[in-house]
């Protein structure tokens, strides 16, 4: 009788263990957005209102289990092999039903190696790469996710919510930030005033991971708690070519000369 009871207990514990492993194995499951070579890609979905900024009270780190995760291949296979670069604009806007008023997204890269779904972790830092500066909140993005370890793995972020400091002590400001020393981002970047877009210039063809969710830190009542999930639209398109400051100055000078000529004629 005792043997049967022991077996039953072991069986129950085994099922529980498998359930736990199964739950963890889906901690970092991503949706593939496809291949971006210039044609706009659009994804419409919903996400919890705090999933990009919170992991429990006072943490203000992203919550892996509830954030939306996407993978995207930038450039064709031949572009990746040749090391070509593209100008890409990533944009997050509110959906039409229960719109996500405050949202944010972060981008990491695995370079020329395809991204593999990760497992067994709960939180991530919005502004750092795995193992960057001795902080290991993103280590699971590298193993088994293939995200490049260290600072180079993180590309940038954009968010139109509130400015907050996460529990690693990193400032996550409204607007956007990008890795100015990344070998995968050459030519600079720009973020919209409201933090809804991130234009990446000279983005090296390869594989990229996007973590997306709501920005409403637990220390701020920035959004109604009902409903708990909000709709959004996420797009990848060709970034507009920025007009250099010198061009603006030249245009201003020309306008001034034209005005001066008209006054002289009068």
TrEMBL record:
Protein name: PEP-CTERM protein-sorting domain-containing protein
Superkingdom of origin: Bacteria
Keyword annotations from UniProtKB, A to Z: Membrane, Signal, Transmembrane, Transmembrane helix
Transmembrane segments: 241-260
Lineage start: Bacteria, Pseudomonadati, Pseudomonadota, Gammaproteobacteria, Methylococcales
Signal peptide: 1-27
């Amino acid at each position: 009788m005792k043997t049967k009871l022991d077996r039953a207990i072991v069986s129950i514990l085994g099922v529980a263990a498998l359930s736990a492993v199964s739950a963890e194995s889906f901690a970092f499951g991503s949706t593939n957005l496809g291949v971006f070579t210039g044609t706009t890609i659009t994804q419409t979905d919903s996400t919890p209102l705090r999933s990009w900024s919170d992991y429990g009270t006072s943490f203000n780190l992203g919550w892996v289990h509830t954030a939306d995760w996407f993978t995207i291949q930038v450039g064709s296979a031949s572009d990746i092999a040749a090391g070509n670069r593209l100008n890409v604009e990533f944009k997050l806007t509110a959906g039409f039903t229960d719109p996500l008023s405050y949202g944010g997204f972060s981008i990491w890269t695995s370079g020329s190696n395809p991204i593999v779904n990760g497992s067994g972790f709960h939180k991530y830092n919005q502004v750092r790469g795995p193992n960057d500066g001795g902080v290991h909140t993103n280590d699971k993005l590298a193993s088994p996710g293939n995200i490049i370890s260290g600072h180079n793995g993180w590309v940038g972020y954009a968010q139109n919510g509130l400015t907050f400091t996460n529990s690693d002590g990193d400032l996550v400001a409204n607007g956007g930030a990008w890795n100015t020393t990344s070998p995968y981002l050459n030519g600079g970047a720009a973020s919209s005033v409201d933090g809804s877009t991130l234009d990446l210039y000279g983005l090296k063809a390869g594989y990229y991971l996007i973590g997306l969710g709501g920005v409403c830190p637990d220390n701020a009542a920035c959004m109604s708690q009902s409903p708990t999930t909000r709709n959004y639209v996420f797009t990848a398109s060709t970034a507009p070519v920025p007009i250099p400051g010198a061009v603006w100055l030249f245009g201003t000078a020309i306008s001034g000369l034209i005005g001066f000529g008209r006054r002289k004629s009068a």
